[in-house]
Structure formats: structure tokens, C-alpha cells
Amino acid sequence: MTMKNLKIYLFALLASGVLLTSCDEEEALVDQRKADNPLPTVTATTGTNGSVTLTKYVSIGNSITAGYMDGALYTNGQASSFANLLGQQFQISGVGGTAFNQPDINSVNGYSGIGPNNSILGRFVLDLSIPGPKPTVGEVPAAYAGNKAQLNNFGVPGMRIVDINDPALAGSNPLYARFASSPGTSTVLSDALATSPTFYTYWLGNNDALGYAIGGGVNDAAITSQGNFQNALASSLSQLAGTGAKGVVMTLPPLVLLPYFRAVKWNAVPLDAANATALNSAFAGLNAALDGLANFQLITTAEAAKRKVTYQAGANNPILMHDKDLEDLGPKFDALLGAQAITAAQRAGLEPYRQSRPATSSDLPVLTAATVLGTGAAPIGVAIPIADKYVLSANEVVKTVTARATFNQTIKGVVDLINSGPGGTVITLVDVQPKFADLFGLNDALVTQLALGLGTQASIAAVKAEADGVLGIKINGTNLAPDFSPNGVFSTDGIHPNPRGHAIIANLILSAMRTAYGVDIPDVDVLAQRGILVQ
Questions:
Q1: Contact criterion met (CB below 8 Å) for 254 and 431
Q2: pTM score, two decimals?
């Protein structure tokens, strides 16, 4: 395989098992669904609300609560959010719910960013002719024109837990500013409280670690401190509990398992024999310099071996990456020059490799790495290191896992503390980790490695009980996968659920409500929701 075909190969790699299942398979699934569920007999659905009052349901959260998917906030995504799905179930006869109002974006494709020539980009779809995700033509979001006082969904894409009561959020986040009751003065929490909720869902905290991970672990400050996380959580939940409303609080899923961190493999570089030989010849100087540093005892032989670059003909060569946690060898390369062990020209050639190494199976390239791998006159990730922002290194994976585990234990601690107060149990904690362990086919070892659970033996056992080692879940005989394939439950951005994923989340909450409040509310039909959008 020639170097110029590398980028095409990478998108094909994303396609294998993910994209190339084709539109025909999705249509076949829809046809099968219709065959299995004939329409003639329609029975009115009823339910009961048990011990919880659902007349005013309010959802508080970030992009998932808002229905952000496929890299954008758009009309169909909003309608498919787990919050809206719950809102519709609560309106079933006998349950007592009322209209669930959202800050409608009124845009078919939504807005995901600015493209070439200042074009407006919308949601992404899977274009099988590339193959890969492709943006549609988008629209800049307009201010919400509806009645802000009657809103139920307070999901704000990009919101961290520390932003929930910050009046400055509207100044930095236009997706809150467009429906804030008083931009610059009001907060998401104050707006939600003003509606006098009788029941709420609260799912915040993902972005307090996810922003760091999506950025390739470049900025440690992107992880919210545990103290700030706890203060914001305790303050907001205490105020919600103080209204007398009952609520559901969600834990955080294992972020590093998201398709955004799994679609591009660490060894995604294909090379034919000629290119492998040429690259090995080019890297002979770097490898010799590393041996020289080891001989001078400036680095260990193990360090030299970790950084050496050697390619072979085949499809699975490791990506060459920048790792900011490595020692900067610049001064030591200078020492080789000073000792006349290398020439000035050779020293200049070593400059890009001061903190580089081949990736290992412990490193997680992010989804956007596929857009730059193999590009350029000196192919990125092959001849020169790919930038730090495109790979979550092993150390950065540990930081992400640790932060998420700490936040989850904090969530449990705050909920337990509030429930131990004079008002009794007013919050139901819904742990999403067992469902994710099942979906991603984890085993006990991975449950431990990813620090799943809530810090107690019982919570860890609950996760392990669902970790069956089988990838995906089966619903009514249909296998659903933890990816953005036609059978997947994630959208094309690799982070947010698609409508089927949202239905699974809604049903997880409904199950908890049956246990906690004795409600009799039917599940959302997961397979009636669409999967990904394919072009």
C-alpha cells in the first residue's frame, strides 16, 4: 500500500464493521421491525405515577440531556433525547405528566461549526462513498422564540457541573444564551428552579473530565477539581431537594470506552514493503542517536527502545505520536552534537523527535486523528509525530479514568448525604455503569482497570454482574453495538447516543422509578427509534 492511500485506508478502517454495514442493512432492520410489529390492533396505553408527582418534569444536564448528537444540536436530535422520551411517557393516560417543552432549535441540520470559506456546518451523516462522517449544511442557532417560563428541558451542550449556577455561562455558551431567562444574570439552575418542578432528572459531570479527554489530554486544567465538583453538585442538588421535588441523579459512564476513543486504532498505519524500507532507512539516524544517548548513559536502554521507530510491511504499524510526558531529549541531543557524535544537520533532523514514540495498545487516538494521519509531505503520524491533541496517551487515560471514578464517588456521597437529611430519600441514584459494562462487553479485569463502581463492594459487584464479556446488547432479538454502525447506539460524533441509545437511557431511568416510586410506566420502544443517519 502506498503512502498516498493512507488516508483512504484509515477511513476504510473506520468503516470496517462500523460504516460498511450499508443502508440496505438499516432498511432491512426497519422492514423486519414492521413485519414483527403489525399495526392493525391498537390498544390504548395507560399507566400510574406511584408515589411521585410528574405534573412538572424538568431535565437538567449537558449535551446528552439536550439531545445533541451527530456533532450538532438539531430538531430530530432534540425530539429523540432521553429527556423528551421520558416527557412523552409521563403524558401517558393515568401517569399525570403534562406537556414537555424544549428550547426548540428549529433546524433540520443544526450547527456544528465553521467550515472552509466560512461555511456553516451542520450535523454529520455517514457518507458511504468516502467512507466516513460528512457534515451537512448547517444554520447558526437563533434565539429561542417560545415561552422561556414554560420550558422543561434545561440541557445545555458543553455545560460542566461547575457551570450550573454561573451567570457568566450565557456569555460563553450561546446554546444557553438562546433560552436563558435573563442572559448574564440568570443561571441554568435558577431558570430550572423557577419552573417549580415536581420531578427532575439531573445528569451532569461528564464534561468535567470529557473535555480533557476529547482534547487529547493536552490541558490538565480542563479536569474540574474534586473540591469544585463537590461544591457545585452539593449546592445545586440541595436547592433542588429543597423544593420538595423528587429526582433522579445519574452517574458517569466509562468515558474512555466511547467510540470517539476506539474507532481509530493505535496501530492504524498500513505500509507496503517499499515504504517500510524507505522509512526504516530514514529513521536509522534517530535510532542510532537514541543508542548513542544510552551508550553515554544519558537515557536507559529501555527508554531508547521505547522511542525507536521501526516499520514493517503490513496494515498494523503503530502511529508515531508526541507524548508530552516523555522527557524532552532536546538538551541531550545537543550534548551529542557538542561531543561531535552527530553533525549539525543530523541534530536538526532530530528536532521533531524530542518527545516522540510509537503508540502502544494503551494509547487511544481520538476520532479526529483519522483526518490528519498520513497527510502532508512528511506524513503525519508516520514520518513525523502526530500532535498530542490527537492521542490520549496511557498516562492521560489514567488521569481520565481517575477523575471520572472520583466524580462518581462524589456523586454517590452527596446523594447519600442529602437522603440522610430530615426530608428522607428524595433522590434516586441511577448508576449507568452496569449497563455500559454490558454494552461494551467488559470482563472483571476491565471493570477493575477502568475503576467502575461507586467505591463500594456492592456497586462493583453490580457492575461485574453485567460484564458478560459479550460485545453489544440484545433487545427483542436485535443485537445493538457500542459504536456508530447502523446497528449501533452512538451517533456519528462517537460521543453522544443516537435515538436508540437515548431510548435505552430513558428505560434505565424508568426501571429505577418503578423500584423507587412504584410507577407503572411502559418502556420506550428502543427499536422503534432510528439508528444513525446514512447518506
A1: no
A2: 0.92
Cis peptide before 133 (omega within 30 of 0): no
User: 527 near 504, Cβ under 8 Å?
Assistant: no
Biggest distance spanned by C-alpha atoms of the chain: 88
358, β-bridge pairs: 320
DSSP single-letter state for residue 46: B
Taking Cα atoms as reference points, which of 433, 434, 363 lies closest to residue 405?
Answer: 433
* Whether 70 contacts 123, CB under 8 Å: yes
**Which three cell numbers mark 80?**
429523540
Contact between 199 and 152 under an 8 Å Cβ cutoff? The reply is no
For residue 363, the surrounding DSSP H or E stretch is: none
Q: Which fold has domain 3-37+44-262+395-528?
A: Rossmann fold (3.40.50)
Strands (E), 431-501: 473-475, 478-480
Give the start-to-end residue ranges of the domains of the chain.
3-37+44-262+395-528, 269-358
Contacts for 481 with CB less than 8 Å, ≥ 6 apart: 471, 472, 487, 488, 489
User: Nearest-CA neighbor of 492 among 46, 58, 121?
Assistant: 121
Helices and strands, counts by H and E, the chain: 20, 16
Classified as helix, coil or strand, 264 is: coil
Q: Which CA distances in Å does 278 have to 191, 316, 320, 358, 382? A: 62, 17, 16, 17, 12
Helix (H) or strand (E) run with residue 271 in it = strand 269-271
Buried (b) or exposed (e) across 464-473, using 16+ Cβ within 10 A?
bebbeeeebb
Q: What is the pLDDT along the chain (535 residues), one digit of tens a residue?
A: 444 445 434 444 344 333 333 334 444 444 444 444 443 343 568 999 999 999 999 999 999 999 999 999 999 999 999 999 999 999 999 999 999 999 999 999 999 988 888 999 999 998 877 777 889 999 999 999 999 999 999 999 999 999 999 999 999 999 999 999 999 999 999 999 999 999 999 999 999 999 999 999 999 999 999 999 999 999 999 999 999 999 999 999 999 999 999 999 999 999 999 999 999 999 999 999 999 999 999 999 999 999 999 999 999 999 999 999 999 999 999 999 999 999 999 999 999 999 999 999 999 999 999 999 999 999 999 999 999 999 999 999 999 999 999 999 999 999 999 999 999 999 999 999 999 999 999 999 999 999 999 999 999 999 999 999 999 999 999 999 999 998 999 999 999 999 999 999 999 999 999 999 999 999 999 999 999 988 7
Q: In what order do the strands lie in the sheet with 57-61?
A: 153-155, 57-61, 199-203, 246-250, 427-430
